[in-house]
Write a structure and sequence with these properties.
This protein is an alpha/beta fold. The chain contains four helices and 38 strands. The relative contact order is 0.05. The model has no long low-confidence stretch (mean pLDDT 96).
Length: 344
């Protein structure tokens, strides 16, 4: 594409100094004449002087006159514009219809004729798979599972029985959907008796689930991941959890059973959330935080146990000084005692 065509696609303004054909995308410091790049972080602005890129997406506050040799596309949010163009070029395309003779497909399964099912896939009884979905090698699809349209299921994914998956869902390699929830009852002899988990998992439209993530089936009803949520690699979501629309859950986060996560919540890496809690809409939990109580007021929270981020920042400044402060207090106490003894 030419720079003006890219700008038209993005709904942005183009400043074209020379005609080039763009056929790839690259970082600003490495881009060549036929490549598109973008600038959203000010610390990379220095590369505008040296980049060989055929075109650069920039913010309106960049003065084009300072870069007379560059083709520029002016967008309010260059990073979002970059995301749109890379999705346009490299995003999920409709697969070529294909069913491998090395796949096991139960005769009761209902599979749209536009679906691609690759080698060594297992598809159980009464499975339903919608239009233009692609299932890659070694995926396991359990009995009575429903998968919607335009889904992409990567290799070695396990989707257990009775799972319901919406449209435009991406499940990365090694994810396990619908494994048993961690439910046990302890008898009078101290034995842990497994409670059969007879619920399921429901994943709504436009969800992405990262590699190695695990989402447990509910004990009785449904574990629910609502529309537009993005789940990173190695996340654990326990039985009966509900995750609200448009939430982001970052790597190595663990959510205990029956907790309800609101809409638009961000859980940063290695966040831990105890069971049976409620997290308000638009809440942000920073990395390595531990949540032991419900959060009813949206905001940013940090720490173990987590509390308001601003207070946590102030306390974090004090923490490295605690030992010296302790020593100083002991010295002052000693001095006060000496003065008191002298008065007596």
């Amino acid at each position: 594409m030419r720079p003006q065509e890219i700008a038209d696609l993005l709904g942005c303004k183009a400043i074209v100094r020379r005609e080039v054909q763009i056929n790839s995308i690259a970082p600003i410091e490495a881009a060549g004449e036929s490549e598109l790049t973008f600038l959203s972080n000010p610390k990379y602005e220095k590369y505008l002087k040296t980049t060989q890129a055929g075109c650069v997406i920039v913010k309106p506050d960049i003065d084009p006159n300072n870069y007379p040799n560059l083709n520029l596309i002016i967008c309010e949010d260059p990073y979002l514009a970059f995301a749109k163009i890379i999705r346009f070029v490299y995003g999920h395309k409709k697969p070529t219809p294909y069913i491998s003779d090395k796949a096991h497909i139960d005769e009761s399964a209902q599979i749209d004729s536009s679906v691609a099912i690759e080698e060594f896939v297992y598809i159980g009884k009464n499975v339903k798979i919608g239009k233009h979905t692609r299932i890659m090698p070694f995926a396991y699809i359990g009995d009575n599972t429903t998968i919607g349209e335009n889904c992409l299921i990567y290799p070695h994914t396990t989707i257990r029985e009775d799972t319901v998956i919406g449209n435009n869902v991406i499940i990365q390699p090694g994810a396990v959907i619908g494994s048993d929830g961690f439910g046990y009852a302890t008898d009078e002899n101290g034995n842990h008796l497994k409670i059969p988990q007879i619920g399921n998992v429901v994943i709504e439209d436009d969800v992405e689930i990262g590699a190695g993530a695990t989402i447990d089936r509910a004990a009785l009803k449904s574990t629910i991941i609502k529309k537009g949520t993005k789940i990173d690699n190695l996340v654990q979501i326990a039985h009966n959890v509900e995750v609200g629309e448009g939430s982001i859950i970052v790597a190595q986060t663990g959510i205990s059973g029956s907790t309800k996560i609101g809409k638009g919540v961000i859980l940063a890496g290695q966040t831990g959330i105890a069971g049976h809690l409620r997290i308000a809409d638009k809440t942000i939990i920073t990395a390595k935080s531990g949540i032991g109580r419900s959060i009813s007021k949206p905001g940013v929270y940090s720490g173990i146990p987590a509390y308001e981020h601003n207070k946590w920042l102030k306390n974090s400044v004090i923490m490295p000084k605690l030992y010296d402060m302790h020593k100083k207090i002991k010295e002052l106490e000693k001095m006060i005692k000496e003065l008191q003894d002298a008065d007596d």
